[in-house]
Amino acid sequence: MKKLVQATILKNECYIDGIFDMVLSAPEIAELAQPGQFLNLYTGKGEMLLPRPISLCEINPKKGTLRLLYQTAGKGTQYFSTLQKNDVIKVMGPLGNGFLTDKKWKKHILIGGGIGVPPLLELAKALQGEITVLIGAKSNPILIEEFEKTGAFVFVATDDGSHGVHGTVLDILKQNVPKGDMIYACGPKAMLKAVSDWAEQQKMPIQVSMEERMACGIGACVGCAVKIQKQGQTDWENLKVCKDGPVFWGNEVVWNE
Length: 257
Ligand SMILES: Cc1cc2nc3c(=O)[nH]c(=O)nc-3n(C[C@H](O)[C@H](O)[C@H](O)COP(=O)(O)OP(=O)(O)OC[C@H]3O[C@@H](n4cnc5c(N)ncnc54)[C@H](O)[C@@H]3O)c2cc1C
Ligand code: FES
Fold this sequence. Notes:
Elements: E1 3-16, E2 19-25, H1 27-30, E3 38-41, E4 52-55, E5 58-60, E6 65-71, H2 75-81, E7 88-95, E8 107-113, H3 119-126, E9 130-137, H4 144-149, E10 153-158, E11 165-166, H5 169-176, E12 182-186, H6 189-202, E13 206-209, E14 225-228, E15 237-240, E16 247-249
Parallel strand pairs: 8-9, 8-12, 9-10, 10-11, 12-13
Antiparallel strand pairs: 1-2, 1-7, 2-6, 3-4, 3-7, 5-6, 13-16, 14-15
Flavin-adenine dinucleotide is lined by residues 38, 50, 52-55, 69-71, 73-77, 115, 118, 211-214, 241, 246.
């Protein structure tokens, strides 16, 4: 059940160049939220009416707080970066269907690329069993120490070779990653397609968190449709990232459309 609330900003600081770390007090949302779900953030400005979707990086129901990590991309996120501690922001959430979890899955592989990494942190904290995290970035991988603190095995790949393997998360996968009962991935579409193809070859199930440009963000406009072909169906259908996703089965996404 989603809530529309006025959340107080407890923290909004630069994490690294162009990426901000925001903590909100929003107990009504924190008590309901699950890893992989997202918030719609409103600017309250007439020229930026549409909400901006941002994933939940950490959820603390006891403290009633939510953590978001966002990259300044355009006008909306630039505006968010100017907000100060104790400012109030209108947010709606928790939105979408997050990652599916099951106690019978004991070995987990989490794969994040760029600003797709944050939602995997709350997932890593929620999962039980052996967790391997692969973090990919152009040059500045994020949240490495925080994933390590969860007890996960962490591997890093960067395009420029400044951290970890010189290459992509796929290069790590090809080298030395053990078999997992479930793979969970979030990042650029090209990365999601590549890891889904790899997972299919390895006969491992994979959930992917998709990102599409959104308008209403609540399932009312079809602005965020992706083509999904359900197992056993002969044709694809348009599903909404904001309402039916953002998490889908990797082998059901029609990647080449
Ligand atoms: C489910 C989901 C989770 C996301 N989680 C994060 C996150 O955790 N951290 C993060 O940095 N970014 C995240 N994004 C991307 C983020 O929503 C966009 O970068 C942001 O909306 C851009 O807004 P803007 O006003 O700064 O840019 P502009 O380009 O000026 O945005 C103009 C309009 O396009 C929409 N839009 C633009 N880019 C996107 C996009 N990639 N996805 C959806 N709508 C977009 C905006 O909502 C706005 O209505 C997520 C996107 C989705 C769909
Ligand atoms: S953004 Fe309107 S239906 Fe998803």
